[in-house]
Every structure is written in structure tokens, then in C-alpha cells.
Write a structure and sequence with these properties.
InterPro entries: Pirin, Pirin_N_dom, Quercetinase_C, RmlC-like_jellyroll, RmlC_Cupin_sf. Keywords: Iron, Metal-binding. One of its GO terms (molecular function) is metal ion binding. Belongs to the pirin family. Its cofactor is Fe cation. The mean pLDDT is 97. The strands form four sheets. Strands 1-20-17-22-15-13-14 form a seven-stranded mixed β-sheet. Strands 2-3-4-11-6-9-12 form a seven-stranded antiparallel β-sheet, with no helix packed on it. A four-stranded antiparallel β-sheet has the order 5-10-7-8, with no helix packed on it. It has a single domain, classed as Jelly Rolls (Sandwich). The protein is mainly beta and 232 residues long. Helix content is 2%, strand content 54%.
């Protein structure tokens, strides 16, 4: 079964400095039909004006992944980390017992476009930690590149949950297939371009919940970037 979540049906808020879309209920956007999917709790697509950002704020007991599409995301946190995340890089924070952090557009004259993903942890109360890795474009072209997993397989960032996150860059007509184990689910997020998921059309910003399927077949109708989550 495949259920499409159209881009225009997502929660939306335009704060001037921030234009944000929420696949699931978040902040002032609440829809009891869209509270998450499996242990995937948040997929926010954020566009941040030059020099603007999120002042210091707290998190706890959440796996937080940032995936930058355009621009540069500047990060500082209470663990002493200070970094800039650019396209191709993935940042992972395990909030655990509690952290505070800030996120700003690093540029003073260019916009920032990124996804922030929250995944519920397998266990609460862990020690907070941070990780940032580069996944070169070449490793994502024409294939599903594992970028987050419970065991850090294939050099992916490590998350405190039995979930996997993949990224792929597909040329027009290219296809990739991901096999789902019995009882597993998938979420597909079209980041750019236009794809089909088992024949169902997804445009940029659309998502798809996949259950009771043996595989997920992604076919690009034009050059596309896509995220796939394999979930319990």
C-alpha cells in the first residue's frame, strides 16, 4: 500500500526569514492524521533567508538529522560543537538527556534550503552525541547511498534506532530498487525533480508512505534527488 503526501497538503508557515513545510504535525501545525510514520516523527523542509536562523533552543530524546540541499547551515551546540554543513554533508545529533543548539544560515547573501528529520529513539536517556559526515555526489548517483543507520554501516552516521536512511541522485530514466523485509515500512521523500514510486508520481516536496510492499522501485522522470527511509 502506498499513500501519497502531496507537497501542497503539508503544514506551511512563512515567517519572512523562514519558509517551512511540515510533512507531519509540528509547532503550530497540528493534524491528528499526520503525526508521523512508524518512528519517523518530523520531516521539515526549511528555506532560511541569508544571515537568519534559529536561536539557541533545547531538544531531548530525539535523533535529529539535517540534510542540506542548497547553501550552508551553521551549527553550534552545548556539547561544544561548532560547524558548517554544506550540500553532500549529513549532520546527526542524538539529543538524549538534553542539548541546546542554534542553527543559522552561514551566508550573508544566499539562501539556505535543507531538510530536518526527527526520528524517535529506540531508548530514551542516552548520552547526547554529534556526528557529521560527507557523502560525495558520486556515491549517490544512480544508487541508494546509505547515510544513516543503527550500526553505522558503510560509513553512515549512527542513529539510536532500527532505521536506515538513504539518499540518491537519479538521472532521467534511471531506476533504483530497495527491498523491504517482512513487516518493514518505507517513507520516500522527493527532494528535487520528479520520480515514480512503484508507479505513483511524486514531484519535489511530495512524500509517500509505503507498507505491505516487498520492494520500493524509484524511477526518475527527470534529474532528481530523493530520500528513502527503511523503518520498523
Amino acid at each position: 500500500m502506498i499513500t501519497i503526501r502531496k507537497s501542497e497538503d503539508r503544514g506551511h508557515a512563512d515567517h519572512g526569514w523562514l519558509d517551512t513545510y511540515h510533512s507531519f504535525s509540528f509547532a503550530s501545525y497540528y493534524d491528528p492524521r499526520h503525526m508521523g510514520f512508524s518512528n519517523l516523527r518530523v520531516i521539515n523542509e526549511d528555506r532560511v533567508e541569508a544571515g537568519a536562523g534559529f536561536p539557541t533552543h533545547p531538544h531531548r530524546d530525539m535523533e535529529i538529522i539535517s540534510y542540506v540541499l542548497e547553501g550552508a547551515l551553521e551549527h553550534r551546540d552545548s556539547m561544544g560543537n561548532g560547524s558548517v554543513i554544506r550540500p553532500g554533508e549529513v549532520q546527526r545529533m542524538s539529543a538524549g538527556t538534553g542539548i541546546t543548539h542554534s542553527e543559522f544560515n552561514h551566508s550573508k547573501d544566499e539562501g539556505l534550503h535543507f531538510f530536518q528529520i526527527w526520528i524517535l529513539p529506540q531508548r530514551d536517556g542516552i548520552t547526547p552525541s554529534y556526528e557529521q559526515k560527507l557523502f560525495p555526489e558520486q556515491e549517490k548517483k544512480g544508487r541508494l547511498r546509505l547515510i544513516a543507520s543503527a550500526d553505522g554501516a558503510e560509513g553512515s552516521v549512527t542513529i539510536n534506532q532500527d532505521a536506515k536512511m538513504y539518499a540518491s541522485l537519479l538521472g532521467q530514466g534511471q531506476e533504483v530498487v530497495h527491498h523491504l523485509a517482512r513487516g518493514r515500512h518505507a517513507w520516500v521523500q522527493a527532494a528535487r525533480g520528479s520520480i515514480t514510486v512503484n508507479g505513483h508520481l511524486l514531484e519535489a516536496g511530495d512524500g509517500a508512505a509505503v507498507s505491505d510492499e516487498d520492494l520500493v522501485r524509484l524511477t526518475a522522470r527527470q534529474p532528481s534527488e530523493v530520500l528513502l527511509f527503511d523503518l520498523p
